[in-house]
Amino acid sequence: MSATFDTQLPLPTAEQASQVRVPTRRRYLMCAPQYFTVEYSINPWMDPEQPVDTGLALAQWTALKEVYQQLGHTVETITPEPGLPDMVFAANSGTVIDGVVLGSRFRAEQRAAEAEHFRRWFLRNGYRDVVMPTSINEAEGDFTWTGTVLLAGTGFRTDPGAHAEAQEVLGVPVVSLNLVDPRYYHLDTALFVLDDQSDRPQVCYFPGAFSAGSQKVLRRLFPDAVIATEADAACLGLNGVSDGHNVVLPLEATALGGALAERGYQPVYVDISELRKSGGGPKCCTMELRG
């Protein structure tokens, strides 16, 4: 399986062409879906009655990992553990900013053991400032670093108290956002950052996933955001990963890819159909190691 780089893109306007998108090399942590299956349901995407092809999930994950490497990024891996089928969704097990690690504490007991395996990985790999949270905190599932502020989701998984804890541990300003649609149970299913390297970070989000007040906050913070459609969100198109130029998206998110191309970004499409059976996409599989 290979990713698709969209070369049939509309020509940008003169204003858009002047906005040169510059990729930055990233370092990611991923976990192979060796034991992936859907044997319980903790979000609306999961149906234990639906057949799951673990081999296909592994092939899709491998293709995603290879895309990152082809784009020049470094990918670290953690050994998957039997009995933890959702460990592939590495983003939920840590938030790393400037080398400081805030671990996770899962709401669902089925995933609770994942946090300790990731904590040990950080310590084995030279991280010394590792803090495990006291509040329910599903890490980059609900914490999104924009380069200036940490956007923090709540409503279904992460407790509001975890937002204050993240600010204390990571030493960055936090903006709370309330999620209201259970299909978009984590912030990273409804919003992702396109550019975190400038004074004016750019994001993409689906307004319908957020409360009215949170929508107002997002409009105030990001007046030039890319606004996704219901169809974009429904294929987990908002679970994307951007390096400032290349944007990795689910194969079905072509409308969103077109909108991003008009802003000067390069869509890179990957097939995550099997992993989506557990409510995950590219970002869910990808924890960013910053600093």
Automatic annotation (TrEMBL):
**Cited SUPFAM superfamilies:** Pentein
NCBIfam families reported for this sequence: DiMArgaseDdahMtb
Name this polypeptide is given: Amidinotransferase
Q: Which organism is it from?
A: Kutzneria albida DSM 43870
